[in-house]
Every structure is written in structure tokens, then in C-alpha cells.
Design a protein that fits this description.
Order of helices and strands of chain A: EHEHEHEHEEEHE
Strand content of chain B: 5-15%
Number of strands of chain A: 8
Number of domains of chain A: 1
Radius of gyration of chain B: 20 Å
Strand content of chain A: 25-35%
Structural class of chain B: alpha/beta
CATH architecture of the largest domain in chain B: 3-Layer(aba) Sandwich
Number of strands of chain B: 9
Number of domains of chain B: 2
Shape of chain B: globular
CATH superfamily of the largest domain in chain B: Aspartate/ornithine carbamoyltransferase
Distance between the termini of chain A: 10 Å
Radius of gyration of chain A: 16 Å
Order of helices and strands of chain B: HEHEHHEHEHEHEHEHEHHEH
Largest interface: A-B, 47 and 36 residues
Helix content of chain A: 25-40%
Oligomer: heterodimer
Largest sheet of chain A: 5 strands, parallel
Strand order of the largest sheet of chain A: 3-2-4-5-6
Structural class of chain A: alpha/beta
Number of helices of chain A: 5
Chain lengths: 179, 317
């Protein structure tokens, strides 16, 4: 069981973080016109969609958002548990690719996502945007865009709620009881 | 992905009920995904929806739409359960409400595809559905995947969705496909809509009002032949006999709005002819062999667009 400790981002906080990330993407993406955004299933997808919406409002471009299911590429789950994603080569070939996820923790999901992209084709570059970076990496993975850095202990975990899926927007830190 | 220790939250599912569920970035994403599906061939080797079940629940007949949804699910590696005529072949015949049926089917399936004769039925169903629900047509209401496949076809055939001259002909009052397509096209800059329909079947004022607000250019034209001369896309629809008081009136309207060899001579070389199908004789069969006749390619695109929609909804958005 868990005890809620603190709300670290509310709806406004999430909105501001995404807006800032969108501005950073506009500044730092080499080829916005050809950008493919891959939302990591599940909560990376609505976040990716919100970023695409912001890019549309700010720059008038609507990069496609494709859901990326990386469970087939995780190294800590049985290989057969989930199929690899349906991603054709030219969706990523020679294009800038932006991976979007809610929480960056040990880096294994991000690594799986990079593997999934590289298995499909050779992108121009891959960048990673996350709403929350909570630290404790076990792999040499570094996000390019971060909504909020949240120092955590390993006993804590971060729960992201998004209105599209959970009916509300919030990011909370929870403490594992009896840990 | 969140920490794996996070307890799963009861999540309200996302649905596709009307064009208003589709903002422009989502439309662009679904069109890109549909094109990915097409490029991978009809069966993505990885079967991304393996283990998922789609329920197709049709309260009125539609072989075409039902088959393309079911084929889309099967080609994604998923499975399908279906009721062919839910109005008589299910507990609806015993008086069960649509809402109850959807709640129960949502307990068995991961996705629901619903066709219903009443306007607003899909909206009601979506409100209680525990799993993503796709509106496959609710009476004269909406049919969003048809509008998406029309957009996909235009983009593929014409190379763009903006600065196009689109002529819509036929039943623009009750025909949901032309209406939904007009609303989606109005979101792209520089499009000009020319509407050709008999007075009885004019595009409704509500839709005209919505279109005017977007700033899209709309023109009414009596003569299909004159309108066709300046078209990039000619979107023909079926006129149903029951909309007219007499057979004479019906025949008269049909004769002036037919797409035939003479009309094709007026249509520019680069233009395309679309039709949501099924057609009666509003497009002469002699037109079928003309490379500008895009309606069978359009119907086939429905498969890829529905694969994209099912994939999108199943991925938990």
C-alpha cells in the first residue's frame, strides 16, 4: 500500500511544463517539418498529443503522434509477453524522432523505446522528453527535455494522472508503506 | 511508463464519436498511422493487437462498414465478436436499453464498434462504455471513420488537404458523410466548397453556420457540370428516393446530378471523383474505368484508416 506525500505538479503545473518543453523543442529540433513524435504507451501518448497540439498552436505544424508500445523490447519482462510495435521504416528513417514519456526512472523503458525505433529504421536523431525525471538511472540515458526534476528516494514512487486517461491532471509522490 | 508498482487507476476510456473528437493534430496523427498501416501491407507482421477483442455491434445493417472494421481488427492480430443485427438478434429484442448492452459488452471486449439508427446513440453509448467506443454511424448523425478515410483519400490522391476546390453533390441534408467531411476540410486553409444539391436536400443551416465561422469559402451552384469544371475533388453522394414526394421529382433531380461520360469531359484531368458508396446510378458505370474514379480506392482506404483508429484507441489513449 502507499501513502500520498505531496502533489508536485497540478493541472497548471503540467500545462506550464509542457508549454516550456514545446518552446524548447521549437528551438532545438533541427527539422520540425519532418518530426515524428512517438508517445510511449500508455501515458506518453496523451502527453505527446498535448505537445503536438502546442506545436500546432505555436508554429502551425502538426507532427504526427504515433503510439509506441515498447513492452516487447523491455529487458525486465518476458520477451513473449507483448508484441513489438508496428512501426514502418520510413516513419523514422532520416527523420528526427521525439520520444515522449511521463516518468523517467531507471531508464529501461527509454532504452526499450530506442531499441524499438532503431529496429524499424535509422532516424536522423532521437530525443527524449519526459514530464518528470525522478533519477536513479541504471543505464546511460539522459532526457533532452524535462518538465520537472524530482529528487526521490527508491522507497518513493511517482504517480502521474492525466485527464485523458485518469480524469484529472496531477503528479504525486507516494511513499511505499513499511519500506 | 510509470513505476510498475503504481496501482492501476480506473480509467474512463477514449472514444471516437463525432468529428469534434478529432482536433487537427489527432487527424494528422491518424492519417500518418493509416499510411504506416498501408505501407506495412495489410497485416503488420507483429500483430500489435494480438490478444485484444473487438465487439462489432450493429443495430442496422451495413456489410461494408462492418466488414472493414472486422478485417482491420483481424489484420492487426486481434479478434472479433459480432452481432449481425443487434436490433433483432440480441437482447434489444427483449427491450434491453442500448446503455445496458454497451456496459455488458464492454465487460467482454476491449473495443466496441457501434452502428445505430438513432442520432446521438453513439454519444449515449460512449458515456457509459467502460472501453473505447467507435461510432460507425448513428442515423443522420456522424460517421467519423468515413470522414477520416475521405480525408486520407484526398491527401493521398491530391497530395494535400489545403487550397483545394471541392464540389459536393447530392444529398447534403441527410448525408452524414458530406457533412462531416466539409467540417474537417474547413480546418485546413484555403479550401473552397461548392455545394450542388436540390433545394430539398440543401446542406443544413447549422452546418453552414459552423463552416462560416471557420472562414472557409462556400458557394451554392445549381449546375453540377459548371461546378465540375473547376474542381479538384468531386464528391458525389447517393440521393434516396424516400426523400421525395413523387417519383417524377426524384427522377428529375437524379437526371441533373449524374456523373457520366459527358460530365467527366468537363472535369479537369487532375481531379478525382469520390463517393462514400453504395452508389445507385448517380455515377454511371462507364466512369469506373476512368483513372479519376477514386471511389473504389477510397473504399479500400477504409481498411487502413480503421486499422489506424483501432490501433490508436487500443493503445490506451
Amino acid at each position: 500500500m502507499s501513502t500520498p506525500k505531496a502533489v508536485i505538479l497540478d493541472g497548471d503545473g503540467i500545462r506550464r511544463s509542457l508549454r516550456r518543453i514545446a518552446h524548447e523543442i521549437i528551438e532545438r529540433q533541427p527539422d520540425l517539418e519532418r518530426l515524428t513524435i512517438l508517445g510511449i504507451v500508455t501515458r506518453g501518448v496523451p502527453l505527446a498529443q498535448r505537445l503536438a497540439q502546442l506545436l500546432h498552436e505555436l508554429e502551425g505544424i502538426a507532427p504526427p503522434v504515433i503510439p509506441l508500445d515498447v513492452r516487447g523490447y523491455r529487458d525486465d519482462l518476458p520477451r513473449s509477453q507483448a508484441p513489438p510495435p508496428a512501426l514502418p521504416a520510413d516513419r523514422v528513417k532520416d527523420r528526427p524522432v521525439l520520444l515522449v514519456d511521463d516518468v523517467l526512472f531507471n531508464g529501461r523503458t527509454a532504452r526499450a523505446a530506442v531499441d524499438a525505433v532503431v529496429a524499424a529504421g535509422r532516424p536522423l536523431l532521437i530525443q527524449l522528453a519526459v514530464l518528470v525525471d525522478r533519477g536513479h538511472r541504471e543505464l546511460p540515458i539522459r532526457p533532452d527535455y524535462v518538465g520537472k526534476n524530482v529528487p526521490t528516494s527508491r522507497q518513493e514512487w511517482v504517480e502521474v494522472h492525466l485527464s485523458e486517461i485518469d480524469g484529472e491532471d496531477s503528479v504525486r509522490i507516494l511513499e511505499r508503506d513499511g519500506a | 511508463m510509470s513505476d510498475s508498482l503504481v496501482a492501476p487507476t480506473a480509467a474512463p476510456a477514449r472514444h471516437l464519436v463525432s468529428p469534434s473528437d478529432l482536433d487537427l493534430p489527432l487527424v494528422e496523427s491518424l492519417l500518418a498511422l493509416a499510411s504506416d498501416m498501408e505501407r506495412q501491407g495489410q497485416s503488420p507482421a507483429q500483430a500489435p493487437l494480438r490478444g485484444r477483442i473487438m465487439a462489432s455491434v450493429f443495430y442496422e445493417p451495413s456489410t461494408r462498414t462492418r466488414f472493414s472494421f472486422e478485417a482491420a481488427m483481424l489484420r492487426l492480430g486481434g479478434q472479433v465478436i459480432s452481432v449481425e443485427s443487434a436490433a433483432t438478434g440480441s437482447s434489444a429484442a427483449k427491450g434491453e436499453s442500448l446503455e445496458d448492452a454497451v456496459r455488458i459488452i464492454g465487460g467482454y471486449a476491449d473495443l466496441i464498434v457501434l452502428r445505430h439508427p438513432e442520432i446521438g446513440a453513439a454519444e449515449r453509448a460512449a458515456r457509459v462504455s467502460p472501453v473505447p467506443l467507435v461510432n460507425a454511424g448513428d442515423g443522420a448523425g456522424h460517421h467519423p471513420t468515413q470522414a477520416l478515410l475521405d480525408l486520407y483519400t484526398i491527401k493521398k490522391e491530391c497530395g494535400r488537404l489545403d487550397h483545394l476546390r471541392i464540389v459536393m453533390s447530392g444529398d447534403l441534408k441527410f448525408g452524414r458523410t458530406a457533412r462531416s467531411l466539409a467540417l474537417l476540410l474547413a480546418r485546413y486553409p484555403g479550401n473552397q466548397l461548392t455545394l450542388v444539391s436540390p433545394d430539398e436536400l440543401r446542406l443544413g443551416e447549422d452546418v453552414r453556420h459552423q463552416l462560416h465561422r471557420t472562414g472557409v469559402s462556400i458557394r451554392d451552384e445549381r449546375d453540377l457540370s459548371a461546378a465540375a469544371a473547376g474542381a479538384d475533388v468531386l464528391y458525389q453522394t447517393r440521393i434516396q428516393r424516400e426523400r421525395f414526394a413523387s417519383v417524377t421529382e426524384y427522377d428529375q433531380v437524379r437526371s441533373v446530378s449524374r456523373v457520366d461520360a459527358a460530365l467527366m469531359r468537363r472535369l479537369p484531368e487532375h481531379a478525382i471523383v469520390m463517393h462514400p458508396l453504395p452508389r445507385l446510378d448517380e455515377i454511371d458505370e462507364s466512369v469506373d474505368s476512368d483513372p479519376r474514379a477514386a471511389y473504389f480506392r477510397q473504399a479500400r482506404n477504409g481498411l487502413f484508416v480503421r486499422m489506424a483508429v483501432l490501433y490508436w484507441l487500443a493503445m490506451g489513449t
